[in-house]
Design a protein that fits this description.
Blueprint: E1 2-11, H1 12-21, H2 23-29, H3 32-39, H4 44-62, E2 75-79, E3 85-89, H5 91-101, E4 106-113, E5 117-125
Antiparallel strand pairs: 1-5, 2-3, 4-5
Helix pairs in contact: 1-2, 1-4, 3-4
Length: about 130
């Protein structure tokens, strides 16, 4: 059962300008691991933009929009050993999710980009126990 769905699209150049201005934006929005991962990419700004879009899509799927109860760097996008993106989040975010849904949903995230834009889709799905 789908609990929430969010999508967001971001202009890469817009994120690039914010990242190049200094560390304030990067440190507010991205975790240290995300910054390191993005900065080691051939085009780091595509990765920064895709992660930013994913965080925006996450709060849309959650149904809260942007709140100031936590910083975006408390939502972290990491890749599994096959490269699939997934979310890690702080206890504060976890508790907010539990307040909203009374359960921790499976979070499905997909990232993509073109030359100019990055897009992300997030699905929050209720984990249902198999009857078998």
């Amino acid at each position: 059962m789908i609990l929430g769905l969010g999508i967001d699209i971001v202009d890469i150049e817009r994120v690039q300008k914010k990242v190049q201005k200094g560390d304030a934006f990067k440190n507010l929005v991205f975790s240290a691991r995300e910054i390191s991962d993005c900065e080691h990419k051939k085009n780091p700004y595509e990765s920064f933009a895709a992660r930013f879009a994913a965080k925006e899509a996450f709060v849309k799927a959650l149904g809260t929009g942007i709140t100031f109860e936590y910083d975006f760097n408390e939502l972290e996008i990491v890749n599994d050993d096959k490269g699939k993106p997934c979310f890690l989040y702080s206890e504060k975010v976890k508790n907010m999710i539990l307040e909203r849904f009374a359960t921790l949903p499976q979070v499905i995230v997909s990232l993509s980009h073109s030359n100019n834009q990055s897009v992300a889709v997030v699905i929050l799905e209720k984990v249902v126990q198999s009857p078998f």
